[in-house]
Write a structure and sequence with these properties.
By secondary structure, the protein is α+β, with helices and mostly antiparallel strands. It has a single domain, classed as Beta-Lactamase (2-Layer Sandwich), CATH 3.30.450. The protein has 4 helices and 6 strands; from the N terminus they run H-H-E-E-E-H-E-E-E-H. Strands 3-2-1-6-5-4 form a 6-stranded antiparallel beta sheet, sandwiched between helices. The longest helix has 16 residues.
């Protein structure tokens, strides 16, 4: 597959995800390096939706460690159960945060981040990484984002 995405300009959010999913699957399905695959997923989400920050944190020992991302510099390590990412790791479920200032213990890597979604990357019931997406707009994420981001991270094979 060519490394160009085709997403119709006038598409709805759902249509953008529906168009993006098979293109990313084609891009990463034969690539065994998961760092490269995470990088392409992050870049595609940033390109298509222009989110403020998109990236992965990988489980390394007792911490989430910054992985491939698109956007401003970020926190390097996050503890288990801390912030939205650490809570997602602990709870093993997608978290949608409409207003990060209202999330107890939110880790502010950037004061420009206003809302967030974090999706666990699971293998055999174990969290291997999390996909973290921030917006500079309040209440940016919904169940459509959760549904399709969960499908996107399911393409990764750790």
């Amino acid at each position: 597959m060519a490394e160009d995405l085709y997403i119709p300009n006038d598409a709805s959010k759902r249509e953008k995800y529906e168009s993006l999913l098979p293109q990313l699957k084609g891009l990463i399905e034969d690539e065994p390096d998961q760092i490269a695959n995470m990088a392409n997923i992050a870049a595609a989400l940033k390109e298509v939706f222009n989110f403020f920050w998109v990236g992965f944190y990988r489980v390394v020992g007792e911490s989430l460690v910054l992985g491939p991302f698109q956007g401003p510099i970020a926190c390097t390590r996050i503890s288990y159960g801390r912030g939205v990412c650490g809570t997602t790791w602990k709870e093993k479920k997608t978290l949608i945060v409409p207003d990060v200032d209202q999330f107890p213990g939110h880790i502010a890597c950037s004061s420009l981040s206003k809302s967030e979604i974090v999706v666990p990357v699971m293998q055999d019931g174990v969290v291997k990484a999390v996909l973290d997406v921030d917006s500079d707009k309040l209440d940016c994420f919904d169940e459509t984002d959760a549904f399709f981001m969960e499908k996107l991270v399911s393409l990764l094979n750790f």
